[in-house]
Each structure stands twice: as C-alpha cells, then as structure tokens.
Amino acid sequence: MTHLKYAAAARAAELKSSGPVLPTTAPTNAAAVAAADLVVIAVPHGAVVEVVAELADVLAGKVVVDATNPVNDTYTDLTTSGVSAGEALQKQLPGVAVVKAFNTTFASRYAAPTEDGSPVDVFLVGDNSAAKRTVGEFARSLGFRVIDAGGLRLARSLEEMAFLNISLNAGNGLPFHSAWKLVGPVVPS
Questions:
Q1: Which residues does residue 76 pair with via DSSP β-bridges, in sequence order?
Q2: Which residues neighbour 140 within 8 Å (Cβ) at sequence distance 6 or greater?
Q3: Considering the entire predicted model, what is its pTM?
C-alpha cells in the first residue's frame, strides 16, 4: 500500500541509489505509513474507508495518492455518483493532500511504462500544487510522462477513463496492458 520514501517503487530492481535503500516492507500498514512521505492507496475501492480510517492519525502531513477505481463487483459500472472516490477520500482526510493518480494506468505498465519508445502518461489531479509536484516527481522517477489535469473535481473524469479502459480490456479479452496517451501539445507539469 505504501512506497517507503520512494524506495519500494514498482521498478525497484532497476532503481539506482546513491545511498542506503529503505526496506520495502513493514510489520504493519501504520508502520509503513509512518515511515513514508508519500502514501499510495492501492486497495480495492470497497476497503478504502476502513483502511484509511485505521491509518488516519499516521496519514496526517503526508501526500496521499488515490490510485483506486470505484468499480462495482461485476466490473460493469462505477459505484460513485456525483462525487469521485478521490473527492470522497479528501473528505475523509480533510487535513491531508490527496492526489488522484495512477488509477488510469494498469499495474502491468509500471515495470515498462513506455509504448513505442515513448513514456506512457500518468494523469494526476488534486487541489494542492506542492502535493501534485511530489506525485509528479515520483511518477517521472518510474519513467512515466506526467499530465497535470487540474483540480480534484476532475478525479471523476479520471475514474471514468479508467472504467472505459477496464471495460475495453475485459469486454474484448485484452491483457490489461493498454494505456492512455495524450497526443498533441500538452501543458508541461
């Protein structure tokens, strides 16, 4: 669930470090979160409220990435209506900087975040500029191109994009390896 000071990156085997690497596991979620600057919530959406409630005290002052997608049990629709999972998480953690990111990117892309030699895009949204910069730096360190798509209200759009990608893969027997790529001029982030 967490990345300890970025050391537990998906491509950890490829990362080069000039100093000691922190452990990639911890005895408890709370211990892992306490040691982290950046926390990625990557649990099934139905578990988010419970997991976050359990960790609320240690999440204070952290940058929290919501990488979840609120799909129903049959993967036929989203469970949210009018409010995104990212917005709901921000409401649950009012003193924490929440950034929605990585939810449009299948985990299968993390080890090889390129397509035809070009980095795959990670879209991020949030209301805290410094937190978005931190998440953007992390995503770039993994090899992604970062697209800052705006405020947290746009998490609704990212969740719909993710659902479309899930639906296309599931409905067509694809290997869940596709990714979004914005072409044309983009705003640098």
A1: none
A2: 146
A3: 0.85
Compute the distance between CA of residue 98 and CA of residue 90 in angstroms, rounded to an integer. Answer: 6
Q: Tell me, what DSSP letter sits at residue 39?
A: E
- Tens digit of each residue's pLDDT (9 = 90 or more) over 12-69: 333 334 345 556 677 888 999 999 999 999 999 999 999 999 999 999 999 999 999 9
**Quick one: how far is CA 34 from the chain centroid?**
19
Chosen CATH of 2-171 out of 2.40.160.20, 3.40.50.720, 3.40.50.40, 3.40.630.30: 3.40.50.720
What is residue 78's DSSP assignment?
B
The contacts of residue 127 (CB under 8 Å, 6+ apart) are: 90, 97, 151, 152
| Helix ranges (DSSP H) in 22-94 | 29-35, 48-59, 85-92
68-76: long-range contacts at Cβ-Cβ below 8 A with a sequence spacing of 24 or more? 68/41, 68/42, 68/43, 68/44, 68/103, 69/45, 69/103, 69/159, 69/162, 69/163, 69/166, 70/45, 70/159, 71/45, 71/163, 71/166, 75/166, 75/167, 75/170
Domain spans of the chain? 2-171
Q: Are 24 and 12 in contact (CB under 8 A)?
A: yes
- Sign for the pseudo-dihedral over CA of 100, 105, 107, 111: negative
